[in-house]
Every structure is written in C-alpha cells, then in structure tokens.
TrEMBL record:
One of its GO terms (biological process) is myelination. It holds the Pfam family MARVEL. GO terms for molecular function: structural constituent of myelin sheath. Forms oligomers. Keywords: Cell membrane, Membrane, Transmembrane, Transmembrane helix. Belongs to the MAL family. This is Plasmolipin.
Length: 134
C-alpha cells in the first residue's frame, strides 16, 4: 500500500517535467508489481509447488535490492522537492511521496532483516521454540 502511494502521488504531478522523478517512478512501480506478485505467490501457496526454489534466499536478495534502490529513490525524490514550486499541490504531493518512499524503504529494510533470519534458520515462532524436558 505504501509503494502504491509513492507512485500514485508522483503520477498525479507534472513529474515528466523533472527527470529525477522518472527514476522514482520506475523504482516504485517495479517493486510494487514484484511485491504484489510475491504476495499473491504466498497467498496462493504457490511456493509449496516450487519447492526446489530457495524462497527465503530469493526473498532476502529481493528485499536487499529493493532496499538499496529505494534508498536511491527516496534520496532522489526528497532532493527534487522544491518548496518554491509554482504549483502548490505538486509540492504537497511530492513531499508526501518522499515521506512514503522513506516508509517503504524502512519496510524493505525490515523485510531484509526478517528474510535474513529466515534464510539462516533463526526465524521461529513461539509455538515451535517451546522445549519441554521430562
């Protein structure tokens, strides 16, 4: 949802007049689509049919790449916001897009951390980590 907000807010401005927003649009739309595809894959449990794919490693790499590219998109978006814009609504939408890009970046950082823990086998829930000695 946050990624959708980033590209929807920018798409509602005159982003084509500023080359920097082309990169932000590419990153936000590309990773939004791929994230939705991964979500649908897990929702439909398709990863169980393709058991030969190391899904935890794939997700960790995806989240790490998304983190790095969203850092560049966030910095680009934030640097391109100009408070002296002649259209106030463009400024507000671009500033909001920068804020949500930062939130998406933080979400991908958290996703990378949890994917790394799952890949290393450190991610277990309370039900599987209970040990009883009798």
């Amino acid at each position: 949802v946050l990624g959708l907000l980033v590209w929807a807010l920018i798409a509602d401005t005159t982003y084509h007049l500023h080359a920097a927003y082309g990169w932000v649009m590419f990153v936000s739309i590309f990773f939004w689509i791929v994230t939705v595809l991964f979500f649908v894959t897990y929702l439909l449990q398709l990863q169980l049919k393709f058991y030969m794919i190391p899904w935890s490693l794939v997700l960790m790499i995806f989240n790490a790449v998304a983190t790095v590219l969203y850092i560049t998109a966030f910095v680009t978006c934030a640097a391109a916001v100009q408070p002296t814009s002649w259209r106030q609504w463009d400024y507000n939408r671009r500033a909001a897009a920068s804020f949500f890009a930062c939130l998406v970046m933080i979400a991908y950082v958290a996703g990378t951390f949890f994917s790394f823990r799952a890949w290393k086998g450190l991610g277990s829930n309370a039900a599987t980590s209970q040990v009883t000695d009798h």
